[in-house]
Amino acid sequence: MTSTLPSLDYIAGFIDGEGCFSITYSHGSDIGTLTLHITNTELSILRAIQATFMSWGITSCHLVIQTKGTDVHKTGYALQLRVRDDLKLLCSILEPALYIKQRQCQIFKEYIAAREMEGRSGNHLEDTRSLLWLELKTLNRKGP
Predict the structure, then answer these.
(1) Chain centre to alpha carbon of residue 55
(2) Per-residue model confidence as pLDDT tens digits over 23-34
(3) Pick from 10, 42, 48, 98: most CB atoms within 10 A?
């Protein structure tokens, strides 16, 4: 029996529904950590997505238990990706196929570009990064 890897469109749809692009700041730091979380209770789906990412050259994603199962709820799992170069590659692949989360993916690319520009020029682009973080935070809010 051979298994096929999920397609780009399948993964993009899954991320549109179950994914979260986030930027978090540690206390006292002005440099955020970018993370893509994809959560689900079906570990096999997340493993298949992870295998597809690896086939695209994205090797830093890892699976974690997000919530322990109970008598009422299934165990929740998360596929997490935090390495900037892998996020940059993934966003370049995913962006055209995303629908709901396309802007969040673009924000990641812009944030990464700002960090790279800071490294090359020595200019501090904290304002640019802060505006991107605020836009992402607004997009990630649930409900009306």
Answers:
(1) 17
(2) 988 777 767 889
(3) 98
